[in-house]
Write a structure and sequence with these properties.
- Two copies of one chain form a homodimer.
- Chain A is of the alpha/beta class.
- Chain A folds into two domains: 1-122 and 288-300, Isopropylmalate Dehydrogenase, CATH 3.40.718; 124-285, Isopropylmalate Dehydrogenase (3-Layer(aba) Sandwich), CATH 3.40.718.10.
- Chain A is built from twelve helices and eleven strands.
- The first copy, chain A, has helices spanning 14-27, 38-47, 52-55, 73-79, 84-93, 106-117, 152-165, 190-200, 227-252, 256-276, 302-317, 320-335; strands spanning 2-6, 31-36, 58-62, 99-102, 127-132, 139-142, 175-179, 205-210, 222-224, 284-287, 293-295.
- The first copy, chain A, has an eleven-stranded mixed β-sheet with strand order 3-2-1-4-11-10-5-6-9-7-8, sandwiched between helices.
- In chain A, a hairpin with a 6-residue loop joins strand 5 and strand 6 (139-142).
- In chain A, helix 1 packs across helix 11, helix 5 packs parallel to helix 6 and helix 7 crosses helix 8.
- At the A-B interface, helix 9 and helix 10 of A face helix 9 and helix 10 of B.
């Protein structure tokens, strides 16, 4: 399987991204097409001294422009036709690659994907899902930012798409929860109450409303919400994790015994960090477009990029898109639910 | 100042609550009226052996019923007229106390408060604010659960109410942020975009949109959102904090050096815990009703109850409700904004 990597996105620059591509090629039966400034990428690639068998599975395709993090997604892909992310999805459209991975502007990546590849049959609104670590298996939340104003049928389709994707983590029928301000039936805003009815009448494994505190418990495989709420959940979790670590560090450096104690406990802290780190979970899948796309965190290191590339491969191997299409078709035929 | 304490709410039972009342009476110039089952409360109070000067500022008022955590708020206060929370707000209405503190059902507490005391002049929707610890000063978020479907004018009023309350933490003009899925103007769902315009044209110190990750940075004093989003923020933060601590503990107990190291670092962990614990922040103020009410977390220990009682006193001393009324009046006169 060949996967395009937008080698110009991300906060750490091309070399870290290319290092991730090399790790992925070493680890799995994939080849990677690096998209970006050809001379620059060649240079970085040479600096990393890949072995011949690895180098033979790395290709470079030139793109003259870059979509920046602060660019407006739709404007950017309209104006920057030769940007690395547009060129990457163009390769996908032509069938030269089967997936795209980017650590760049997530809105622009989704927009470029949908523009080049179109939507899967029956999908009204493609979106971005995110993988949250929990006390048990990871949970898939959708949408986390692409669709801020939604109708119930959109949330219902997010449930189908995220259920298909959660096959990555569970072989059972995934348990779907609807994010609300209380567990009891009847809790929620108007959108949630309407979505509740649709999910209840569907053939998904709907377990009812879940609250914010349930997100990290691991008692549910899929959490459905609109992109406004999902984006806030994602960012508040990141913000709290960072702030807590900073506060804890501030307290530890205040005393010598605490510093010594911390050194003893360091391997435990590292295991904990690994358990909750997004480096280990690849990236956020773009679901609902007719192809495979993964958006990695801007801060992604090589390991995170490797995991995103492996995740793209797994999405193909598990036939996630075919499952989505089948799920939508079944919901229209069996449950009569359509836009 | 005399404050009524709903002595039947909370997960730890009346004795912990009464212990909190005793701490508050020792600490500040307040007296407390315990509301609940008279015989039971007398018994618990005697067990705690308060000194005479403390005991003289504790009074007991009988209430024969209790609103349970799972009771539907509005139904509960309609059916349980002699519940501790209804009796407590009845004392407030009669002027026998000037504030009510409860660690019970928050929806029922707000409903009982609004029913007995009414709303402040010009307020459409009273709500619940919550105090979040940050890297700097605490931030006040409103609404966190009372109003799940809101219009822009409601969020605008939350901004006025929370700004008045944030006087607890800042003497400057509080910086108001609007919770959104991006910082840039124009980001947000329909509700947020409409609210943005109102806040921009107000005389509040509006700094624009803030993201989930900004909540814990301490660069803003007030964060405005609807009660659906706010409730999820509150619970996801609690859930993540609990899950992280559990995961970290799991990793630490796996190795002896880590356990020893943890013991050395324990005082630092305790200081960290104190810094982020809701025990230290009193409780969530009910804002917009014509009186003072604080809802403490169900898990509140005596220290948290003491802080909630002191918070109620501070709300009176800082004339929070007068500030709210003045803020609403100014917004109607100067900005022409009203429901």
């Amino acid at each position: 399987m060949k996967i395009a990597l937008d080698a110009m996105g991300g906060d750490h620059g091309p070399e870290e991204l290319i290092a991730g591509a090399l790790l992925a090629v070493e680890r799995a039966n994939v080849s990677v097409c690096l998209v970006g400034d050809e001379a620059l990428l060649k240079n970085h690639l040479a600096n990393l001294h890949p072995k011949d068998d690895v180098a033979s599975r790395i290709q470079i395709v030139h793109a003259s422009q870059v979509v920046e993090m602060h660019d407006h997604p739709v404007d950017a892909i309209r104006k920057k036709r030769d940007s690395s992310i547009m060129v990457a999805f163009d390769l996908h459209k032509k069938g030269e690659v089967e997936a795209v991975v980017s650590a760049g502007n997530s809105g622009a990546t989704l927009a470029a994907g949908v523009r080049n590849l179109g939507r899967l049959a029956g999908i009204s609104r493609p979106g971005i899902a995110s993988i949250f670590p929990t006390l048990k298996k990871p949970v898939v939340m959708m949408d986390v930012g692409a669709n801020v104003d939604c109708r119930a049928v959109h949330l219902y389709q997010f449930a189908i798409m995220a259920s298909a994707f959660s096959r990555m983590f569970t072989s059972d029928k995934p348990r779907v929860g609807l994010l609300s301000n209380g567990e009891e039936t009847g809790k929620g805003n108007i959108l949630v109450k309407e979505t509740y009815t649709l999910l209840q009448n569907s053939n998904l494994n709907f377990i009812g409303n879940v609250e914010g505190r349930d997100v990290f418990q691991g008692e549910v495989d899929v959490i459905v919400c609109d992109g406004f709420v999902g984006n806030i959940c994602l960012k508040i979790s990141e913000g709290l994790a960072e702030a807590s670590m900073k506060m804890l560090r501030d307290e530890i450096v205040k005393s010598l015994p605490a510093k010594i104690g911390y050194l003893f406990a360091l391997p435990a802290f590292r295991r904990f960090k690994k358990r909750v780190s997004y480096d280990e979970y690849g990236g956020a899948p773009l679901l609902g477009m007719d192809g495979i796309g993964i958006v990695s965190h801007g801060k992604s290191n090589a390991r995170a990029i490797m995991n995103a590339i492996l995740e793209a491969k797994q999405m193909k191997d598990l036939r996630v898109n075919e499952r989505i299409v089948a799920g939508i078709a079944a919901s229209t035929e069996v449950n009569g639910i359509k836009e």
